[in-house]
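Renewal narrative, Specific Aim 1. Our central claim is that a sequence can be written position by position from structural information alone. The example that follows is taken directly from our test logs and has not been curated for this report. It begins with the structure tokens describing the chain, in the order in which they were read.
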């Protein structure tokens, strides 16, 4: 999961927002009617409501605090929370207060646009989006892009707005902006709009290779893979030593599952450890061991005295090629630096593959007790041991490794999280919940734990309201995180709010093409009687990951 953001804690809010008020307080005694006292009380109530996942209450409390303190930052915060809670009435009140208190700039215009979209006032929304798009620099159009991708009620509404903006010539005359909005049109599954944007970009930026990339992407999305390949071939011929362009072309081939072509593009031009690593990963994904062996031999021949990073890479390639003895030699030859600990962990994994489990576990125990190793490496040694025990179907050994890890690193969130997921896979939901809650005791704003626990309760229990509150807390911290939006949509579905759920799940899939999200969209559509449409998403999920657990459960449940 993405690195966890943190919600703004009360202490930080108080320090940033109320420093001037507290300074004034020292100059004169606080009276019962002092707005500072009242606003602090409202702010505390808002923060507690946020921590409980009660966004409506939090929005009202922050709005009260902003009124009492006459503070523009609190008015902005109240607006954001109300918009997240989909409380249009409070959002409008907070926005009005924000403007009256002197609010201005991109954030205000973006919030105005989101509220107008929510209310269905698309003309007003376009006015604020135009304001963003006409702002000099890149920040404005990026804000507008975010509003369209995250603020619209459904993909059709976002597409209508984007279509009007393209029609009126509001998109800035910048290649990066046009490519970004073209990518949004693709994510919204609007081929006609993509075609219009591509045509506009070709006219505005003739001869620009990255325009060809957008066109190739459009052809791929429309199933015209042969045409897309021809275009990518011509682009690759133009790329020269432009490493960034070559990576973009390779990524397009990767999306077509043509890993060999992607690797061939990266093989041209100057090479470094990054390009070698990417090439190795592509060949491994293609399971092309013949080509990977050639790359391995090439790397070995060019490495008279390989540095630690190169030795680690050679070990990883040899490991994938199942040349485990060679991999072990490379890993053990990593002399020091940050790569040393990764090499020791990989060496233990190789020993396990060589059926030398006792040696593997012994090496991990040594790393766990190595005082010279950094804490992260020692912690990871416990996690790897647990994973290898699980592969051995040694449930007791897996749990014992977690227990020893927690004895060495009490309440470590990574170990608790891994153990919690292990309990969930075994259908032991009470123990999974206990571990995830233990993380939240120490780190109340741990987004990964909030989302995991909320999703687990939504998916495996009937405690939907509790699940919703946990997911709301995660949404507050990372409102544009696709995994969290997926969890939010899923709990809405489980609560019977199917149409709302579908909007959120579609938005999550727009942000991230993921098998689990696609299977969720399919299941909701199936439950709404839209079975042909559902099958399309089940098939999309199959192409991404045919072994996905959520997909298998959805197919079993629906009989699709």
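The sequence written for that structure reads:
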């Amino acid at each position: 999961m993405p690195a966890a953001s943190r919600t703004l804690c009360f202490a930080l809010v108080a320090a940033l927002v109320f420093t001037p008020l507290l300074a004034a307080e020292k100059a004169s005694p606080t009276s019962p009617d002092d707005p500072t006292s009242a606003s602090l009380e409202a702010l505390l109530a808002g923060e507690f409501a946020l921590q409980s996942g009660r966004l409506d209450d939090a929005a009202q409390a922050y709005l009260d605090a902003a009124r009492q303190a006459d503070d523009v930052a609190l008015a902005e915060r109240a607006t954001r929370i109300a918009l997240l809670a989909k409380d249009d009435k409070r959002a409008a009140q907070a926005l009005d207060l924000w403007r009256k208190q002197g609010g201005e700039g991109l954030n205000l215009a973006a919030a105005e646009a989101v509220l107008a979209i929510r209310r269905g006032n698309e003309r007003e929304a376009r006015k604020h989006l135009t304001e963003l798009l006409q702002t000099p620099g890149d920040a404005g159009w990026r804000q507008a892009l975010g509003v369209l991708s995250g603020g619209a009620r459904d993909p059709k509404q976002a597409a209508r707005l984007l279509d009007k903006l393209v029609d009126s010539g509001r998109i800035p005359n910048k290649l990066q902006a046009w490519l970004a909005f073209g990518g949004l049109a693709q994510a919204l599954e609007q081929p006609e709009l993509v075609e219009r944007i591509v045509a506009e970009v070709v006219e505005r930026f003739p001869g620009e290779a990255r325009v060809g990339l957008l066109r190739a992407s459009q052809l791929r999305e429309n199933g015209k893979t042969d045409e897309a390949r021809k275009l990518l071939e011509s682009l690759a011929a133009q790329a020269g030593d432009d490493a960034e362009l070559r990576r973009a072309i390779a990524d397009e081939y990767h999306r077509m599952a043509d890993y060999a072509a992607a690797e061939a593009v990266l093989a041209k031009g100057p090479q470094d450890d990054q390009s070698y690593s990417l090439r190795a990963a592509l060949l491994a994904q293609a399971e092309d061991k013949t080509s990977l062996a050639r790359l391995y031999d090439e790397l070995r021949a060019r490495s008279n005295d390989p540095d630690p990073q190169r030795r680690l890479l050679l070990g990883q390639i040899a490991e994938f090629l199942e040349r485990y003895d060679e991999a072990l030699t490379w890993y053990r030859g990593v002399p020091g630096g940050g790569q040393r600990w990764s090499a020791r962990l990989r060496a233990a994994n190789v020993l396990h593959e060589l059926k030398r489990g006792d040696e593997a576990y012994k090496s991990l125990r040594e790393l766990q007790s190595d005082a010279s190793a950094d804490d992260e490496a020692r912690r990871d040694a416990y996690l790897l041991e647990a994973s290898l025990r699980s592969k051995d179907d040694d449930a007791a050994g897996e749990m014992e490794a977690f227990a020893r890890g927690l004895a060495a690193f009490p309440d470590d969130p990574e170990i608790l999280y891994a153990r919690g997921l292990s309990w969930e896979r075994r259908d032991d939901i009470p123990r999974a919940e206990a571990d995830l809650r233990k993380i939240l005791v120490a780190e109340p704003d741990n987004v990964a734990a909030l989302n995991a626990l909320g999703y687990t309760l939504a998916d495996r229990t009937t405690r939907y309201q509790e699940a919703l509150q946990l997911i709301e807390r995660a949404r507050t911290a990372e409102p544009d995180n696709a995994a969290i939006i997926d969890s939010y949509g899923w709990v809405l579905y489980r609560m019977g709010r199917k149409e709302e759920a579908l909007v959120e799940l579609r938005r999550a899939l727009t942000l991230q093409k993921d098998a689990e999200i696609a299977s969720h969209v399919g299941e909701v559509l199936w439950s709404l009687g839209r079975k042909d449409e559902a099958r399309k998403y089940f098939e999309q999920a199959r192409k991404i990951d045919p072994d996905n657990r959520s997909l298998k459960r959805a197919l079993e449940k629906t009989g699709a």
